[in-house]
Amino acid sequence: MGILHAAPPGAGDTTRLYRWLTDRQGRCNVFDAHLFACILARRWPAGPGALGLDERALGQLLEKYFPDALAQGIPVPDSSPTPLPPLLRGEVDDIAALLLAHRSLGIEEEEWLAAIVARAMLDRGELWRDLGLAGPSHLAALMERHFEPLALLNATGTRWKVFLFRFLCARDGLIPCGAPVCNDCGAEAVCFGAAE
């Protein structure tokens, strides 16, 4: 008699998708597996593009952390976000580069997390919510484990989205504004040049 496998939940059922993924977890770091299951459960329904990972990196992540999910058919969402315009793509690349310049362990998970966090920074909500985490303390734990030098710089506990955008502005010699994302600021032409 063969082993019965539960059918994967629909791509939009985040709680069931999280449980389904963690039930198919490989032999890997439990904390990171939890992070990736939260992120996938939250961002996967919008399509693989919402993760900010290319197809190769996504395949490596799934193979390492949830190999049975690949074998049993993780549900493919009906849609995927349209590609980012060049201005936003540049913003994502800058954030990912900032994170990678402050990585803690030098492992491939940090490359994946940098891409995922950078893409989630463009969303309008709190970063921890947009990553599917349980609260700000979980995001702080992610940052402390994988991007500790930045975590040490954020000693005041500023919200991560605000901290990262302000860090980039200060690094580039700009006066940091109070907007949590660049779209809300109104000074895009000053920061990025006039639209063509």
Short description:
By secondary structure, the chain is mainly alpha-helical.
Structural class: mainly alpha
Q: What percent of residues adopt helix (DSSP H or I)?
A: 55-70%
Summarize model confidence as the mean pLDDT. 84
Number of contiguous helices? 11
Rg over CA atoms, rounded to whole Å, is: 18 Å
Cα shape: globular
Distance between the termini: 64 Å
Number of strands: 0
Order of helices and strands: HHHHHHHHHHH
In total, how many domains does the architecture comprise? 2
Spans where pLDDT lies below 50 across 5 or more residues = 1-5, 192-196
Oligomer: single chain
Q: Per DSSP, what share of the residues sits in E-state strands of 2 or more residues?
A: under 5%
Biggest beta sheet summary: none
Structure description:
- By secondary structure, the chain is mostly helical.
- The protein has 2 domains: 14-72, no CATH class; 86-192, no CATH class.
- The chain is 55% helix and 0% strand.
- The protein is built from 11 helices and no strands.
- It has helices at residues 14-23, 30-43, 55-65, 67-72, 86-101, 108-120, 127-130, 136-146, 148-153, 160-171, 188-192.
- The longest helix has 16 residues, at 86-101.
- It starts with 13 loop residues before the first helix and ends with a helix.
- Mean pLDDT is 84; it is low at 1-5 and 192-196.
Features:
single chain, 55% helix, 0% strand, disordered N terminus, mainly alpha, 196 residues, disordered C terminus, 11 helices, 2 domains
